[in-house]
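Notebook, student rotation project (T.W.).
Task set for the rotation: take a protein with a known small-molecule partner, predict the structure of the complex, and write up what can be learned from the model alone. Partner molecule chosen: zinc ion. Sequence and SMILES entered below by T.W., checked by me.
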Amino acid sequence: MKNWKVKLSTSTVSFILDGRFSAIDKLVNKANAFYITDENVYALHQNKFKGKKTIVFPSGEEHKQQATIDFIVEALLNLGATREAILVGVGGGVVTDMVGYVAGIYMRGVQVGFVPTTILAMVDASIGGKNGIDVGIYKNMVGLIRQPSFLLYDLDFLQTLPSHQWENGFAEIIKHAAIKDAKMMKALASHDLAFYQKNKKELSALIQKNVQIKMKVVQKDEFEKGDRKLLNFGHTIGHAIENEHALLHGHAISIGMVYAAKISQVLQGFNDTGLLVATLKQYGLPTNMHFNIEQAMQVMQKDKKKATAGMQYVVLKKIGQAMYETIPMKSLEKLIKLYS
Ligand SMILES: NC(=O)c1ccc[n+]([C@@H]2O[C@H](COP(=O)([O-])OP(=O)(O)OC[C@H]3O[C@@H](n4cnc5c(N)ncnc54)[C@H](O)[C@@H]3O)[C@@H](O)[C@H]2O)c1
Ligand SMILES: [Zn+2]
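Predicted structure of the complex:
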Protein backbone atom coordinates (compact mmCIF):
# COMPACT_ATOMS: atom_id res chain seq x y z
CA MET A 1 0.00 0.00 0.00
CA LYS A 2 2.08 2.92 -1.21
CA ASN A 3 -0.59 5.39 -2.22
CA TRP A 4 -4.18 5.18 -1.14
CA LYS A 5 -7.29 7.16 -2.03
CA VAL A 6 -10.22 7.10 0.36
CA LYS A 7 -13.67 8.36 -0.54
CA LEU A 8 -15.62 10.15 2.18
CA SER A 9 -18.97 11.94 2.27
CA THR A 10 -18.00 15.01 0.27
CA SER A 11 -14.41 14.47 -0.77
CA THR A 12 -11.60 12.07 -1.51
CA VAL A 13 -8.46 11.99 0.61
CA SER A 14 -5.18 10.94 -1.04
CA PHE A 15 -2.52 9.31 1.10
CA ILE A 16 1.00 9.46 -0.30
CA LEU A 17 2.51 6.97 2.07
CA ASP A 18 6.08 6.77 0.95
CA GLY A 19 6.44 10.33 -0.18
CA ARG A 20 9.12 12.94 -0.41
CA PHE A 21 8.52 16.48 0.77
CA SER A 22 10.96 17.63 -1.92
CA ALA A 23 8.46 16.47 -4.55
CA ILE A 24 5.54 18.45 -3.12
CA ASP A 25 5.55 20.96 -5.97
CA LYS A 26 4.16 18.16 -8.13
CA LEU A 27 1.21 17.92 -5.79
CA VAL A 28 0.27 21.56 -5.27
CA ASN A 29 0.26 24.58 -7.53
CA LYS A 30 3.23 26.62 -6.28
CA ALA A 31 1.58 30.02 -6.70
CA ASN A 32 -1.36 29.09 -4.47
CA ALA A 33 0.48 27.03 -1.86
CA PHE A 34 0.93 28.47 1.63
CA TYR A 35 3.01 26.43 4.04
CA ILE A 36 2.24 26.67 7.74
CA THR A 37 4.47 25.15 10.38
CA ASP A 38 5.71 25.69 13.93
CA GLU A 39 9.01 27.15 15.12
CA ASN A 40 10.62 23.82 16.04
CA VAL A 41 9.90 22.15 12.72
CA TYR A 42 10.94 25.26 10.84
CA ALA A 43 14.23 25.60 12.74
CA LEU A 44 15.14 21.95 12.16
CA HIS A 45 14.06 21.77 8.51
CA GLN A 46 14.49 25.35 7.29
CA ASN A 47 16.12 24.32 4.01
CA LYS A 48 13.00 22.38 3.03
CA PHE A 49 10.94 25.59 3.04
CA LYS A 50 13.28 27.59 0.80
CA GLY A 51 11.38 29.46 -1.90
CA LYS A 52 8.00 28.60 -0.33
CA LYS A 53 5.54 31.09 1.17
CA THR A 54 5.73 30.01 4.80
CA ILE A 55 3.99 31.05 7.99
CA VAL A 56 5.65 30.02 11.24
CA PHE A 57 3.98 30.11 14.66
CA PRO A 58 5.25 29.22 18.17
CA SER A 59 5.38 25.49 19.03
CA GLY A 60 3.40 23.75 21.72
CA GLU A 61 -0.10 22.84 22.83
CA GLU A 62 -0.38 26.13 24.77
CA HIS A 63 -0.49 27.87 21.38
CA LYS A 64 -3.36 25.74 20.07
CA GLN A 65 -5.63 28.68 20.83
CA GLN A 66 -7.70 31.28 19.00
CA ALA A 67 -4.91 33.91 19.20
CA THR A 68 -2.71 31.76 16.94
CA ILE A 69 -5.59 31.32 14.49
CA ASP A 70 -5.95 35.11 14.29
CA PHE A 71 -2.21 35.40 13.67
CA ILE A 72 -2.31 32.85 10.83
CA VAL A 73 -5.37 34.47 9.21
CA GLU A 74 -3.65 37.84 9.24
CA ALA A 75 -0.47 36.37 7.81
CA LEU A 76 -2.46 34.71 5.01
CA LEU A 77 -4.11 38.03 4.19
CA ASN A 78 -0.74 39.77 4.17
CA LEU A 79 0.67 37.15 1.83
CA GLY A 80 -2.28 37.63 -0.51
CA ALA A 81 -3.86 34.20 -0.11
CA THR A 82 -7.11 34.02 -2.10
CA ARG A 83 -9.94 31.49 -2.19
CA GLU A 84 -7.79 29.45 -4.56
CA ALA A 85 -5.14 28.99 -1.87
CA ILE A 86 -4.10 25.57 -0.69
CA LEU A 87 -2.76 25.51 2.85
CA VAL A 88 -0.14 22.90 3.66
CA GLY A 89 0.27 22.13 7.35
CA VAL A 90 3.73 20.72 8.07
CA GLY A 91 4.16 19.54 11.64
CA GLY A 92 2.72 17.61 14.53
CA GLY A 93 -0.89 17.39 15.66
CA VAL A 94 -0.94 20.95 16.92
CA VAL A 95 -0.05 22.21 13.44
CA THR A 96 -2.43 19.91 11.57
CA ASP A 97 -5.31 20.59 14.00
CA MET A 98 -4.89 24.34 13.58
CA VAL A 99 -4.17 24.45 9.87
CA GLY A 100 -7.17 22.21 9.18
CA TYR A 101 -9.31 24.65 11.14
CA VAL A 102 -7.92 27.78 9.46
CA ALA A 103 -8.52 26.15 6.07
CA GLY A 104 -12.14 25.57 7.08
CA ILE A 105 -12.79 29.19 7.96
CA TYR A 106 -10.40 31.30 5.83
CA MET A 107 -12.56 32.94 3.17
CA ARG A 108 -15.24 30.39 4.17
CA GLY A 109 -12.98 27.51 3.29
CA VAL A 110 -9.91 26.78 1.17
CA GLN A 111 -8.14 23.52 0.34
CA VAL A 112 -5.75 21.93 2.78
CA GLY A 113 -3.11 19.20 2.76
CA PHE A 114 -0.93 17.84 5.56
CA VAL A 115 2.64 16.71 5.94
CA PRO A 116 2.62 15.11 9.42
CA THR A 117 6.06 15.20 11.07
CA THR A 118 5.48 13.42 14.39
CA ILE A 119 4.53 9.77 14.88
CA LEU A 120 1.38 10.96 16.61
CA ALA A 121 0.31 13.13 13.70
CA MET A 122 1.20 10.42 11.17
CA VAL A 123 -0.91 7.71 12.77
CA ASP A 124 -3.67 9.81 14.25
CA ALA A 125 -3.97 13.61 14.46
CA SER A 126 -3.65 14.45 10.76
CA ILE A 127 -6.11 11.73 9.73
CA GLY A 128 -9.88 11.99 9.73
CA GLY A 129 -10.60 15.67 9.32
CA LYS A 130 -11.20 16.60 12.96
CA ASN A 131 -9.47 19.84 13.68
CA GLY A 132 -9.67 22.83 15.98
CA ILE A 133 -8.27 24.51 19.04
CA ASP A 134 -8.39 24.42 22.81
CA VAL A 135 -10.15 27.06 24.88
CA GLY A 136 -7.95 27.64 27.91
CA ILE A 137 -7.38 24.20 29.42
CA TYR A 138 -10.43 22.70 27.69
CA LYS A 139 -9.25 20.49 24.83
CA ASN A 140 -10.54 20.81 21.27
CA MET A 141 -13.60 22.87 22.17
CA VAL A 142 -13.85 24.77 18.87
CA GLY A 143 -13.37 23.30 15.42
CA LEU A 144 -14.74 21.50 12.40
CA ILE A 145 -14.84 18.12 10.74
CA ARG A 146 -13.46 18.74 7.26
CA GLN A 147 -11.17 16.49 5.26
CA PRO A 148 -7.75 17.41 3.84
CA SER A 149 -7.20 16.68 0.15
CA PHE A 150 -3.91 14.93 0.74
CA LEU A 151 -1.60 13.58 3.40
CA LEU A 152 2.03 13.27 2.43
CA TYR A 153 4.21 10.98 4.55
CA ASP A 154 7.95 11.63 4.50
CA LEU A 155 9.52 9.58 7.28
CA ASP A 156 12.78 11.54 6.98
CA PHE A 157 11.21 14.19 9.21
CA LEU A 158 11.34 11.68 12.07
CA GLN A 159 15.13 11.84 12.14
CA THR A 160 14.89 14.98 14.24
CA LEU A 161 12.02 13.83 16.48
CA PRO A 162 13.06 13.68 20.17
CA SER A 163 12.57 10.31 21.86
CA HIS A 164 9.80 11.47 24.22
CA GLN A 165 7.83 12.43 21.11
CA TRP A 166 8.27 8.90 19.76
CA GLU A 167 6.80 7.59 23.02
CA ASN A 168 4.01 10.13 22.69
CA GLY A 169 3.04 8.79 19.27
CA PHE A 170 3.23 5.16 20.27
CA ALA A 171 0.46 5.79 22.82
CA GLU A 172 -2.00 6.21 19.92
CA ILE A 173 -0.56 3.14 18.15
CA ILE A 174 -1.10 1.06 21.30
CA LYS A 175 -4.59 2.56 21.53
CA HIS A 176 -5.38 1.37 17.98
CA ALA A 177 -4.16 -2.11 18.92
CA ALA A 178 -6.24 -2.09 22.11
CA ILE A 179 -9.48 -1.23 20.37
CA LYS A 180 -9.07 -2.90 16.97
CA ASP A 181 -6.14 -5.26 16.55
CA ALA A 182 -5.04 -7.95 19.00
CA LYS A 183 -2.40 -9.17 16.53
CA MET A 184 -0.77 -5.75 16.44
CA MET A 185 -0.78 -5.63 20.25
CA LYS A 186 1.15 -8.92 20.27
CA ALA A 187 3.67 -7.55 17.79
CA LEU A 188 4.07 -4.36 19.81
CA ALA A 189 4.49 -6.34 23.03
CA SER A 190 7.34 -8.31 21.47
CA HIS A 191 9.27 -5.24 20.28
CA ASP A 192 10.22 -1.85 21.66
CA LEU A 193 10.84 1.70 20.52
CA ALA A 194 14.49 1.08 19.62
CA PHE A 195 13.41 -1.72 17.26
CA TYR A 196 11.13 0.59 15.28
CA GLN A 197 13.63 3.45 15.37
CA LYS A 198 16.26 1.16 13.82
CA ASN A 199 14.05 -0.65 11.31
CA LYS A 200 12.68 1.85 8.85
CA LYS A 201 10.81 -0.84 6.92
CA GLU A 202 9.06 -2.15 10.03
CA LEU A 203 8.27 1.39 11.12
CA SER A 204 6.84 2.30 7.76
CA ALA A 205 4.68 -0.86 7.76
CA LEU A 206 3.47 -0.08 11.29
CA ILE A 207 2.58 3.50 10.37
CA GLN A 208 0.70 2.33 7.27
CA LYS A 209 -1.21 -0.25 9.32
CA ASN A 210 -2.25 2.47 11.76
CA VAL A 211 -3.26 4.85 8.98
CA GLN A 212 -5.48 2.07 7.67
CA ILE A 213 -7.02 1.29 11.05
CA LYS A 214 -7.92 4.92 11.73
CA MET A 215 -9.06 5.70 8.21
CA LYS A 216 -11.34 2.66 8.03
CA VAL A 217 -13.05 3.77 11.21
CA VAL A 218 -13.39 7.32 9.87
CA GLN A 219 -14.71 6.10 6.52
CA LYS A 220 -17.44 4.10 8.25
CA ASP A 221 -18.41 6.93 10.59
CA GLU A 222 -17.00 10.28 9.48
CA PHE A 223 -19.16 12.36 11.83
CA GLU A 224 -18.77 10.24 14.97
CA LYS A 225 -22.23 8.82 15.39
CA GLY A 226 -20.96 5.36 16.32
CA ASP A 227 -17.72 3.45 15.71
CA ARG A 228 -15.52 6.55 15.56
CA LYS A 229 -16.22 7.10 19.26
CA LEU A 230 -14.06 4.05 19.96
CA LEU A 231 -10.99 6.09 18.99
CA ASN A 232 -11.59 8.04 22.19
CA PHE A 233 -10.39 5.10 24.29
CA GLY A 234 -8.31 6.57 27.13
CA HIS A 235 -9.18 10.12 26.11
CA THR A 236 -11.85 11.01 28.68
CA ILE A 237 -9.55 10.96 31.68
CA GLY A 238 -6.60 11.72 29.39
CA HIS A 239 -8.06 15.03 28.22
CA ALA A 240 -9.16 15.90 31.75
CA ILE A 241 -5.54 15.82 32.99
CA GLU A 242 -3.56 16.73 29.84
CA ASN A 243 -3.54 20.53 29.90
CA GLU A 244 -4.03 20.91 33.64
CA HIS A 245 -0.77 19.03 34.19
CA ALA A 246 0.96 20.09 30.96
CA LEU A 247 1.33 16.46 29.89
CA LEU A 248 2.12 15.31 26.39
CA HIS A 249 -1.08 14.10 24.72
CA GLY A 250 0.22 10.53 24.45
CA HIS A 251 1.32 10.48 28.07
CA ALA A 252 -2.08 11.72 29.22
CA ILE A 253 -4.00 9.14 27.22
CA SER A 254 -1.65 6.38 28.35
CA ILE A 255 -2.74 7.09 31.93
CA GLY A 256 -6.33 7.40 30.66
CA MET A 257 -6.12 3.99 28.96
CA VAL A 258 -4.99 2.29 32.16
CA TYR A 259 -8.00 3.73 34.01
CA ALA A 260 -10.26 2.69 31.15
CA ALA A 261 -8.84 -0.84 31.21
CA LYS A 262 -9.48 -1.13 34.95
CA ILE A 263 -12.99 0.25 34.56
CA SER A 264 -13.46 -2.32 31.76
CA GLN A 265 -12.63 -5.07 34.27
CA VAL A 266 -15.64 -4.02 36.34
CA LEU A 267 -18.04 -3.32 33.48
CA GLN A 268 -17.03 -5.91 30.87
CA GLY A 269 -14.93 -8.52 32.66
CA PHE A 270 -11.89 -7.40 30.66
CA ASN A 271 -8.88 -9.38 31.85
CA ASP A 272 -5.87 -8.10 29.94
CA THR A 273 -4.99 -4.94 31.84
CA GLY A 274 -1.59 -6.50 32.59
CA LEU A 275 -0.66 -6.80 28.90
CA LEU A 276 -1.79 -3.25 28.16
CA VAL A 277 0.14 -1.79 31.10
CA ALA A 278 3.27 -3.79 30.28
CA THR A 279 3.18 -2.69 26.63
CA LEU A 280 2.71 0.97 27.53
CA LYS A 281 5.66 0.75 29.93
CA GLN A 282 7.77 -0.95 27.28
CA TYR A 283 7.34 2.14 25.09
CA GLY A 284 8.32 4.48 27.92
CA LEU A 285 4.79 5.63 28.67
CA PRO A 286 3.48 6.55 32.13
CA THR A 287 0.74 4.29 33.50
CA ASN A 288 -0.32 6.16 36.61
CA MET A 289 -0.27 9.61 38.10
CA HIS A 290 -1.70 11.27 41.14
CA PHE A 291 -4.27 13.90 40.20
CA ASN A 292 -7.12 15.80 41.82
CA ILE A 293 -10.20 13.77 40.90
CA GLU A 294 -12.74 16.51 41.69
CA GLN A 295 -10.87 18.91 39.46
CA ALA A 296 -10.65 16.32 36.66
CA MET A 297 -14.40 15.66 37.00
CA GLN A 298 -15.03 19.36 36.50
CA VAL A 299 -13.03 19.35 33.27
CA MET A 300 -14.96 16.24 32.16
CA GLN A 301 -18.24 18.12 32.61
CA LYS A 302 -17.24 20.09 29.51
CA ASP A 303 -16.09 17.04 27.52
CA LYS A 304 -17.82 16.71 24.13
CA LYS A 305 -18.44 13.03 24.87
CA LYS A 306 -20.69 13.91 27.78
CA ALA A 307 -24.40 13.47 27.09
CA THR A 308 -27.27 14.25 29.44
CA ALA A 309 -27.33 10.72 30.83
CA GLY A 310 -23.59 10.63 31.42
CA MET A 311 -20.24 10.13 29.76
CA GLN A 312 -19.99 8.05 26.61
CA TYR A 313 -17.04 6.07 27.84
CA VAL A 314 -15.02 3.56 25.82
CA VAL A 315 -14.37 0.20 27.44
CA LEU A 316 -12.70 -3.01 26.28
CA LYS A 317 -14.28 -6.44 26.19
CA LYS A 318 -10.99 -7.95 25.02
CA ILE A 319 -7.85 -6.59 23.42
CA GLY A 320 -9.00 -5.65 19.92
CA GLN A 321 -12.66 -5.39 20.88
CA ALA A 322 -14.02 -2.11 22.22
CA MET A 323 -17.46 -0.63 22.83
CA TYR A 324 -18.85 2.44 24.53
CA GLU A 325 -21.16 2.70 27.47
CA THR A 326 -22.95 5.67 28.94
CA ILE A 327 -21.74 6.00 32.52
CA PRO A 328 -23.47 8.52 34.83
CA MET A 329 -20.92 11.08 36.02
CA LYS A 330 -21.32 10.07 39.68
CA SER A 331 -20.61 6.41 38.87
CA LEU A 332 -17.63 7.39 36.76
CA GLU A 333 -16.23 9.40 39.65
CA LYS A 334 -16.64 6.39 41.97
CA LEU A 335 -14.90 4.10 39.48
CA ILE A 336 -11.99 6.51 39.12
CA LYS A 337 -11.68 6.77 42.90
CA LEU A 338 -11.69 2.98 43.16
CA TYR A 339 -8.50 2.80 41.11
CA SER A 340 -6.68 5.89 42.40
N1 LIG B 1 -7.51 15.80 15.17
C1 LIG B 1 -7.37 14.63 15.69
O1 LIG B 1 -8.05 13.69 15.33
C2 LIG B 1 -6.33 14.44 16.75
C3 LIG B 1 -5.99 13.13 17.16
C4 LIG B 1 -4.98 12.98 18.10
C5 LIG B 1 -4.35 14.09 18.62
N2 LIG B 1 -4.70 15.32 18.21
C6 LIG B 1 -4.02 16.51 18.73
O2 LIG B 1 -2.66 16.47 18.34
C7 LIG B 1 -1.89 17.19 19.28
C8 LIG B 1 -0.69 16.39 19.64
O3 LIG B 1 0.07 16.15 18.49
P1 LIG B 1 1.66 16.07 18.56
O4 LIG B 1 2.04 15.17 19.66
O5 LIG B 1 2.15 15.77 17.21
O6 LIG B 1 2.03 17.54 19.08
P2 LIG B 1 2.86 18.76 18.52
O7 LIG B 1 2.37 19.21 17.22
O8 LIG B 1 2.91 19.73 19.63
O9 LIG B 1 4.31 18.14 18.30
C9 LIG B 1 5.09 17.74 19.40
C10 LIG B 1 6.42 18.51 19.45
O10 LIG B 1 7.28 18.00 18.44
C11 LIG B 1 7.78 19.06 17.64
N3 LIG B 1 8.01 18.47 16.32
C12 LIG B 1 7.11 18.19 15.36
N4 LIG B 1 7.69 17.53 14.34
C13 LIG B 1 9.01 17.41 14.66
C14 LIG B 1 10.12 16.81 14.01
N5 LIG B 1 10.00 16.14 12.87
N6 LIG B 1 11.33 16.90 14.62
C15 LIG B 1 11.46 17.52 15.83
N7 LIG B 1 10.43 18.08 16.49
C16 LIG B 1 9.22 18.02 15.92
C17 LIG B 1 6.74 20.13 17.74
O11 LIG B 1 7.27 21.39 17.47
C18 LIG B 1 6.30 19.99 19.19
O12 LIG B 1 7.20 20.66 20.03
C19 LIG B 1 -2.79 17.49 20.45
O13 LIG B 1 -3.19 18.84 20.40
C20 LIG B 1 -3.98 16.59 20.22
O14 LIG B 1 -5.17 17.09 20.78
C21 LIG B 1 -5.68 15.51 17.29
ZN1 LIG C 1 -5.42 11.21 20.91
